[in-house]
Amino acid sequence: MDQKYERLLENLKRLKLAYIRNNLDEVLKFSRMRELSNVEFLTELIEKEIKERNDNNISKAIVKANFPFIKRIKDFDFSFQRSISKKKIINLKDCRWIEDHINLCFLGPCGIGKTHLGVALSLEAIEKGYTVYCSTMDELIRKFYLSLATGDFNKQLQKLLKNDIIFLDELGYLPMEESAANQIFQIVSKAYERKSIILTSNKSFDKWGQIFRDPAIASAILDRLLHHSEIFVLSGNSFRVKDIRGKIKNFKDNKKSN
Ligand code: ADP
Ligand code: MG
């Protein structure tokens, strides 16, 4: 029996059935207790293995996506951010926009939830099996700048374009060098009608000529980005400031009551 048990463990390892291998004793005990038929037992077991594998893949994809934080749609307070339609965001959860290679642009001042919504919709996509890479513009430009020096810019670009969603966060905080503007143009034109881009920016489209320091390249980028896109213009006060105001108020209220 022991030998057979060892062989079973070995074979489960060889087949990479980690859930069954790691939970074998418990699984066998439960099946005896619940008096399952062979088919019921196998069905349940395989489903658990699939679920575990799926959960692991999702966790790995979230790490690979390089998000600045993890926030969900349920964490977003739509009553605070009234300039955006909750229904429109909820509708995007079905991920049809990714199949249709539609880009999402979130525009507006700092701290009002642009990155939050981008991350939340990306997480919905990852849970449905899509892949995402998120980077601030600044970080991406620096990475690509280094790759120009080492001669593997194309390799880096291809790697980025393997993702279903390319999430370009914080366009417009820093002005760009000419080579950086060209790199962004290459990303956007190669992704055009093949991938989806999520982009956040604190600058309206009419200011993009200044960001890219070249109106022609800005208009070429905008042309491709906006052809199939959903644009969300957010306004209002920073959520971070609201949080800080709330904390100050609580502090003052506590002081009064003491
Ligand atoms: P932006 O990208 O527009 O500068 P963020 O998305 O980074 O802003 O938001 C700043 C912080 O405030 C994040 O922690 C985010 O989760 C939170 N936040 C912003 N707007 C909301 C909101 N309407 N409901 C809940 N949290 C919000
Ligand atoms: Mg942001």
Question: Could you give a short description of this structure?
Answer:
This protein has 258 residues and is of the alpha/beta class. The chain has helices at 2-14, 18-22, 24-34, 38-65, 86-91, 96-99, 114-127, 137-150, 153-161, 178-191, 208-212, 215-227, 239-257; strands at residues 103-107, 132-136, 165-171, 196-201, 229-233.
Could you walk me through the main structural features you see in this protein, from its secondary elements to its overall organization?
With 258 residues, the chain is an alpha/beta fold. It contains 13 helices and five strands. The chain has a five-stranded parallel sheet, with helices on both faces. Helix 10 links the parallel strand 3 and strand 4 (196-201). Helix 8 (137-150) crosses helix 9 and helix 10 runs parallel beside helix 12. The protein is globular, with a radius of gyration of 24 Å. Magnesium ion binds at residues 114-115, 169-170, 200.
Number of helices: 13
What is the 3D form?
A: globular
Q: How many strand segments? A: 5
Distance between the termini: 70 Å
Strand proportion, as a percent range, falls in 5-15%
Q: C-alpha Rg, in Å?
A: 24 Å
Structure ligands: adenosine-5'-diphosphate, magnesium ion
In percent, how helical is the residue content?
A: 55-70%
What does the largest sheet look like? Answer: 5 strands, parallel
Q: Report the order of strands and helices.
A: HHHHHHEHEHHEHEHHEH
Overall mean pLDDT:
92
- Summing up helix and strand content along with how strands pair, one would put the structural category as alpha/beta
Could you name the ranges where pLDDT drops below 50 across 5 or more consecutive residues?
A: none
Read across the widest sheet, the strand sequence of neighbours is: 2-3-4-1-5
